[in-house]
Amino acid sequence: MRLAGALAVSLAAAAALGGPPAQAYDARSLLALCRSAVFAQECLGYLEGVTDMLHLAPSFARAICPPRQGLPLREIIDLFERFAERYPQLLSLAGSEVIGMSLAQAHPCPEDRP
To answer: What is the CATH number of domain 2-16+24-106?
Structure first.
């Protein structure tokens, strides 16, 4: 149920932001980028930008509750890669959506949080 909720939140956030960015990746392409030695820095930058965007989106602020000390980018990449492997049916979605879903699954907010 949380996965479906995170997907709904991510779709609403994407619609509210007015369309894809100039260099949007689907999750399959982003996964390949993150696993590439040549393009690893681009993966890091993309994930960092998406993570920053998720902190600004009020809908995600209620769905994702990372630890107080934050999450290192390497951990975010690992979460994304494991999530993408576990849910290959989601690889055609925008990479930013799948990153959000992976973070919501790994660090969900308590049910009673407003």
So the answer is: 1.10.890
